[in-house]
Amino acid sequence: MKEYKYKINGNLYKVTVGNIEDNIADVEVNGTHYKVEMEKAPQPKPVVVKPVVRQPATTPAPQATQVNKPAAAPSKSGVKSPLPGVILEIKVNVGDAVKKGQTVVILEAMKMENSINADKDGKVTAINVKPGDSVLEGTDLVIIE
Fold it and tell me: Could you tell me if 141 and 125 are in contact, meaning their C-beta atoms sit under 8 angstroms apart?
């Protein structure tokens, strides 16, 4: 049983939804009982999948050539804000070595303190925020190399 309160054109309505059997719901609005018939969901239409027949290739496949790539530079990655909020505290400094899972920033979001952790081992090369900054979801807070 679920209860809801609605205000429609300035009038307050207390709505209680009771048992639902098939497509009939027992509903009480401001103390008056109703049987409400709900629209049935449309039945999905079956999808026919036609098999794909491939013809054999008439030209030989080209030989794969090996390409030598230069050694990858150390990867930099930013520890991103998982949700919008306000920076309360920064737990690391530029040059600090951090381990994966170590708390680097404390973010206040939805009246709760959230520990934001390093996503990999590495060295802090930049801190892009300061305490009191408001940040959006996806903002790079700390750069780890």
Answer: no
Q: What tens digit of pLDDT does each residue of 99-139 get? A: 999 999 999 988 889 999 999 999 999 999 999 999 998 99
At 6, the amino acid letter reads Y
Print burial letters for 44-68: b (CB count within 10 Å at least 16), e (below 16). Answer: eeeeeeeeeeeeeeeeeeeeeeeee
How confident is the model at residue 71, as a pLDDT? 52
**Eight-state DSSP code of residue 139:** -
State the chain's mean pLDDT as an integer: 82
Tell me if 117 sits within 8 A of 55, measured CB to CB: no
- Please give the Cα distance from 40 to 4 (Å, whole number): 23
Predicted TM-score (pTM) of the model is 0.48
pLDDT at 21 over 90: no
Residue-by-residue DSSP string for 4-53: EEEEETTEEEEEEEEEEETTEEEEEETTEEEEEEPPPPPPPPPPP-PPP-
Q: Distance between CA 79 and CA 118 in Å, rounded?
A: 6
Q: Is 79 exposed, middle or buried (0-12, 13-18, 19+ CB in 10 A)?
A: buried
